[in-house]
């Protein structure tokens, strides 16, 4: 019910915004539009057509539009089209008003000519801050950090620190953590806003700061940064260079975006899609992303078909065996995918460390054995009561048990092996594991059938 009400409210807001835009009443539109949360404004902007967006650029200042772009959720390839329809000066000012890390994220999606143009027009201070972050490798701490933070000297008093905080607060992304630096701008400690409020004004910062600061290297992978913020429940994490100079901070709202991005990326790989499809993409675009993987899997499928051809004589001798191939292959594929999901999630969350990898493999081996035995016994009974064929039932049940055991072990071992090779384990995707397990299950099943053909 609450979701339905939220949708209705959003539709009513969109209708009102559109009406005021078309009517051309700038003051009434601004009063109504700017009274809403930036998320609601961004939602309207995303759904607006080109004509209404042009009116928005006329009615809203670059600073107000920057707040919208801070809250916006667009596909990477949409930014270039949106910035093409803006006046270059307007776009440049918009970027300069955004937090530096968010502006860098946008610029990374634009072509080099656009980036060079905007940085040239932009005021020198903003342009330099953006350039400082642009050179960091994508998906690292440096690429997602912001340079809008509050830092105070360790030899200052609480009174002077509060003055620094008041002056820096309007442009800082967060003020709940205040970072303490020495004369060489090296990170020395941290104080919270609560610490400053409760301390006496003449107290030295060095006497109330916490010197045990958890920081992250500027070159650290963003997924590891996300894990640290989750583990420590931080609102912000300082970023330092190899000499411990404070370069920037990463805030929890940026990490939420990283977690969503990483989860989407892992899911797309597990589904064997090069990039996650969105509903607004056309069928041709979606097909281009899926075809390479499907064609590769087609060749792997031909390998499975070729293996079955090797057992053609066995299938000709006992045609009933062919009936159970989808059952065995399907159960092996499902059990392998389950083990794969557990392993990939464990690697992604950091739960699987060097010492616990063998524990995972032994656990999955035990799980595969138990589930295989239970499913095998059930299949023996079903085949016997269905076809009145006890020997074939035992053969199919044994193949199911063996296939589930091997597939479960393979589903957990392959991601660990790939991770050890410094490759993203998510590329050991479900379809690949399923195809591999098809091959394993067919070899086991038809191999057993060929061995015991004389008894069937």
Task: Set out the fold topology.
Blueprint: H1 2-23, H2 26-33, H3 38-47, H4 50-59, H5 62-71, H6 79-84, H7 88-97, H8 100-107, H9 112-121, H10 124-134, H11 141-144, E1 151-153, H12 158-168, E2 177-181, E3 187-192, H13 193-198, H14 205-208, E4 216-217, H15 222-232, E5 236-240, E6 246-251, H16 252-270, H17 283-310, H18 312-317, H19 325-349, H20 357-387, H21 390-420, H22 430-451
Parallel strand pairs: 1-2, 4-5
Antiparallel strand pairs: 2-3, 5-6
**Proportion of residues in extended strands:** 5-15%
Please state the second-level CATH architecture of the largest domain: Orthogonal Bundle
Number of strands: 6
Estimated helix fraction: 55-70%
Q: Class of the largest domain, according to the CATH hierarchy?
A: Mainly Alpha
> What is the H-and-E element order?
HHHHHHHHHHHEHEEHHEHEEHHHHHHH
Main beta-sheet strand count, sense and barrel state? 3 strands, mixed
How would you explain this protein's 3D organization?
The protein contains 22 helices and 6 strands. It has 3 domains: 2-135, MgtE N-terminal fold, CATH 1.25.60.10; 151-252, CBS-domain; 283-455, Orthogonal Bundle (Tetracycline Repressor, domain 2). The termini are far apart. Strands 1-2-3 form a 3-stranded mixed beta sheet. The chain has helices at residues 2-23, 26-33, 38-47, 50-59, 62-71, 79-84, 88-97, 100-107, 112-121, 124-134, 141-144, 158-168, 193-198, 205-208, 222-232, 252-270, 283-310, 312-317, 325-349, 357-387, 390-420, 430-451; strands at residues 151-153, 177-181, 187-192, 216-217, 236-240, 246-251. It is mainly alpha-helical and 456 residues long. The protein is elongated and about 90 Å long. Helix 5 (62-71) crosses helix 7, helix 17 packs parallel to helix 22 and helix 19 crosses helix 22. Strand 4 (216-217), helix 15 (222-232) and strand 5 (236-240) form a beta-alpha-beta unit.
């Amino acid at each position: 019910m609450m979701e339905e009400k939220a949708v209705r409210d959003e539709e009513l807001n969109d209708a009102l915004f559109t009406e005021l835009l078309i009517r051309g009443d700038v003051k009434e539109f601004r009063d109504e539009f700017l009274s809403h949360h930036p998320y609601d404004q961004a939602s309207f902007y995303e759904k607006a057509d080109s004509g209404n967006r042009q009116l928005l650029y006329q009615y809203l200042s670059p600073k107000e539009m920057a707040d919208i772009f801070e809250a916006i959720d667009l596909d990477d390839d949409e930014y270039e089209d949106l910035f093409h329809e803006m006046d270059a000066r307007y776009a440049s000012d918009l970027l300069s008003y955004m937090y530096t890390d968010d502006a860098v994220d946008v610029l990374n999606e634009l072509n080099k000519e656009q980036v060079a143009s905007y940085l040239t027009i932009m005021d020198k201070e903003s342009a330099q801050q953006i350039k400082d972050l642009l050179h960091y490798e994508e998906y690292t701490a440096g690429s997602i950090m912001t340079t809008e933070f509050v830092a105070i000297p360790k030899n200052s008093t609480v009174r002077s620190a509060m003055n620094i905080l008041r002056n820096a607060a309007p442009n800082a992304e967060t003020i709940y953590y205040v970072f303490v630096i020495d004369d060489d701008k090296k990170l020395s400690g941290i104080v919270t806003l609560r610490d400053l409020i409760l301390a006496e004004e003449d107290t030295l910062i060095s006497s109330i700061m916490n010197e045990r600061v958890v920081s992250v290297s500027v070159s650290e992978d963003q997924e590891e940064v996300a894990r640290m913020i989750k583990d420590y429940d931080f609102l912000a994490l300082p970023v330092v260079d190899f000499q411990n100079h404070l370069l920037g901070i990463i805030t929890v709202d940026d990490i939420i975006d990283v977690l969503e991005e990483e989860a989407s990326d892992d899911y797309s790989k597990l589904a064997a899609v090069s990039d996650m499809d969105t509903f607004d993409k056309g069928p041709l675009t979606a097909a281009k992303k899926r075809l390479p993987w499907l064609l590769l899997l087609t060749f792997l499928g031909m390998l499975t078909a070729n293996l079955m051809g090797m057992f053609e004589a066995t299938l000709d001798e006992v045609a009933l065996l062919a009936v159970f191939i989808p059952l065995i292959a399907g159960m092996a594929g499902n059990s392998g995918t389950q083990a794969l999901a557990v392993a990939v999630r464990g690697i992604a969350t950091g739960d699987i460390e060097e010492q616990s990898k063998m524990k995972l493999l032994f656990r999955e081996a035990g799980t595969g054995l138990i589930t295989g035995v239970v499913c095998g016994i059930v299949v023996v009974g079903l085949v016997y009561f269905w076809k009145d064929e006890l020997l074939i039932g035992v053969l199919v049940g044994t193949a199911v048990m063996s296939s589930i055991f091997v597939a479960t072990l393979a589903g957990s071992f392959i991601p660990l092996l790939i991770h050890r090779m410094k490759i993203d384990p998510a590329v050991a995707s479900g379809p690949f594991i399923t195809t591999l397990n098809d091959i394993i299950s067919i070899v086991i099943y038809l191999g057993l059938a060929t061995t015991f053909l004389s008894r069937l």
